[in-house]
Specification:
It is built from 3 helices and 4 strands; from the N terminus they run βαβαββα. With about 90 residues, the chain is of the alpha+beta class.
């Protein structure tokens, strides 16, 4: 099972530039489960569980184990992370 968590906040300016990339990735990689987490309203405490200290951050999890993460506004890093996680899935 592959899950990609995108940690964001409504007050985060850089998050707004990353959101269109996340939308594109969800379409390009449908076998990955995509979860957007608003860190200001995180009742499940996923940000704490994944040790996310700033946004935007994307965390890739495969079979319950973190296999990578990317933070900031370098958009190519998000594409690379999704490609890496997708490569771990059966064809």
């Amino acid at each position: 099972m592959a899950t990609m968590y995108f940690f964001t906040s409504p007050t985060c300016g850089p998050c707004k530039s990353v959101k269109p990339v996340v939308s594109e990735l969800t379409e390009d990689y449908p076998k990955i489960t995509w979860v957007t987490v608003d860190t200001t309203a995180d009742p499940t405490h996923l940000a704490t569980t994944h040790k996310v200290t700033h946004v935007p951050t994307m965390v890739a999890v495969h079979n319950g184990v973190e296999v990578g993460r990317h933070s900031g506004t370098q958009l190519m890093g998000y594409f690379a992370l999704a490609k890496r996680l997708s490569a771990m899935l059966p064809k």
